[in-house]
Amino acid sequence: MRVPLIAGNWKMHTTVGEAIELVNKMRSELDEIDNVDKVLCPPFVSLAAIRELIKESSIKLGAQNIYFEEEGAYTGEISPLMIADLCEFVIIGHSERRQHFGEIGEVVNKKIRAALAVRLKPILCLGERLEEKEAGRTREVITEQLGSSLSGIDNLDGLIIAYEPIWAIGTGRAATGKQANETISFIRYNTAKLYGKEIAQDTRILYGGSVTADNASEFISQPEIDGALVGGASLKADQFLSIVKQTSKIRR
């Protein structure tokens, strides 16, 4: 059985002090929930501080991005080796990276390879734009993104996939549970074509895109959805706790 996972992507929010305060508000309650993997993804500057806060707990840590080289003259970039001792997960291919920083499938592929090389578990993000959805191209876009992102990678080795329709991210316009489940079922079908049915069935696939405490249960109750990649709601301790607790109750 796939263990559900709820990851909080804090994006470019919180100072180190604010990050510590946020974790302190929910650390003890999160730690008590044992049938859900809880992952916090703060900005790079807070990784070390948050690691110290959660090191005796069941809470896990993730980064929001990496560069694909181990070292070099790449001012401002963070290599996989720099964070490998700090966290377990890393978000790769988020739509905001694709949209604002021009990350194409080839770049995403290099980052996944680099993460796996140092035993980081990538959270690979896939998703279509509104115009692509309205043109009926969702499956075409998802197939291309999955294929280019995983090209030449033989072993997924703990990789997680997050379906994040771009038209739903930060807009308050979430997909319905049924819509998300159908697309995630298609992603699993394509993963099976690439890696076989057994690996596809073991791969956790999350939904992301305007997930809140009010709508989380609609997604978590779907059979193909293994959790959520949460944006804005993860910056509110009560919201994030509620999403994790709902997941625990539904999947117990």
Radius of gyration: 17 Å
CATH C-level class is Alpha Beta
Structural class by SSE content = alpha/beta
Question: Residue share in helices?
Answer: 40-55%
Low-confidence stretches: none
CATH topology type: TIM Barrel
Cα separation of the termini: 11 Å
CATH superfamily: Aldolase class I
What does this protein structure show overall?
The structure is a single chain. α1 (16-31) packs parallel to α2 (47-54) and α5 crosses α7. This protein has an eight-stranded parallel beta barrel with strand order 1-2-3-4-5-6-7-8, surrounded by five helices. It has one domain (5-251): Aldolase class I (TIM Barrel). With 252 residues, the chain is an alpha/beta fold. β2 (37-41), α2 (47-54) and β3 (60-63) form a beta-alpha-beta unit. The longest helix is centred in the last third of the chain and has 19 residues, at 177-195. It has eleven helices and eight strands. The chain has helices spanning 16-31, 47-54, 80-83, 95-101, 105-117, 130-134, 138-149, 177-195, 197-202, 216-220, 237-251, and strands at residues 5-9, 37-41, 60-63, 89-92, 121-126, 160-163, 205-208, 227-230.
